[in-house]
Amino acid sequence: MRPVALFVLLSSLLASAPAGAQVNAADMRSGCTSWSAVVGTISSLLFVVPTGYRFVLTDANIARVTASSPIPASAGDAIRLSIDVGGTTPVSRWVATDRLSTTDPPLQHHWNSGIVFEQGESVEAAVTVVNGPAPFVTVCWSGYVTPSSTSSVTPGPPASDDLALEAAPNPARERTELHFTTSKRQRVTVGVFAVDGRRVRVLQRGELDAGRHQITWDGRDDQGRAVASGLYFARLDTDMGSTTQRIAHVH
Predict the structure, then answer these.
(1) Which residues of 139-168 are buried (b: 16+ CB within 10 A; e: fewer)?
(2) What span, in angstroms and rounded, lies between the C-alpha atoms of 238 and 188?
């Protein structure tokens, strides 16, 4: 019988597929890949997109268990997960690190619009243990395939100025103003992320009316602490899709 920990992880990933995608069970793809005694970086092929199809990755989860050891390891070294287009020179599509501080939750991510891979591309997961070694690491993932002729899996051209995210001043010393326009009332999320994909601050989460919007980032994280000087990314998620804007924060 499958260990309960892995079964629960995989079940939660399958249950979180976006309802709006109307995905048939036969189109779903999922799996778990495990490693033991991980030192440095290790990678594994997750899925090869078949000819005539696209693959939309919707969920990924890191757990410190394996099929042979379903009890989470006590070690707390930070683990970085990169989702790549595999090949001789992998191309990173998404990167995040868990447990950069002791209060960070386990790394579990759901993409509302998904990460789209084209036919023939290899979906690869690369795991890096920052200090290590990590006794056990498992990456669980899920997504769905759709014919290449289907265009709805990728955001279409933005209406009006949707997805035109601006930041000023940039570089920013104390605060920067984020400007964007929505063409209709819709759910909008705006956040600030570090270059490794770690979320720094949630600035907006909820519905906004159509029109021009301005949100201020004061250079602090979700706990109210001033962030270090460096490069950050503001991310705008709307019904039309997602976009990012680089912000250079300096003291």
Answers:
(1) bbbbbbbbeeeeeebebeeeeeebbebebe
(2) 5
Q: Does domain 166-249 have CATH number 2.60.40.2470?
A: no
C-alpha span between 43 and 35 (Å, rounded): 9
Q: Cis omega before residue 171 (within 30°)? A: yes
Give 106's contacts (C-beta < 8 A, 6+ positions apart).
61, 62, 63, 98
Start-end ranges of CATH 2.60.40.4070 in the chain?
Answer: 166-249
Side chain identity, residue 221: D
Residues of the chain with CATH 2.60.120.1330: 4-147
Question: pLDDT tens, position by position, for the chain (251 residues)?
Answer: 344 444 444 344 434 444 333 445 567 788 888 888 888 889 999 999 999 999 988 888 887 776 666 665 555 677 888 899 988 888 888 887 776 555 555 666 777 667 889 999 999 999 888 777 888 888 888 888 888 876 555 444 444 456 678 888 888 888 899 998 888 888 888 988 876 567 889 999 888 888 889 999 999 998 899 988 877 878 888 877 777 777 888 76
> Structure tokens of 225?
């602490």
Give this prediction's pTM. 0.53
Please give the Cα distance from 159 to 181 (Å, whole number).
10
User: Strand pairing of 79-85 and 122-147?
Assistant: antiparallel
Residue located via tokens 């010393």 = 173
Could you tell me where the DSSP H helices lie in the chain?
4-15
For domain 4-147, give the CATH number.
2.60.120.1330
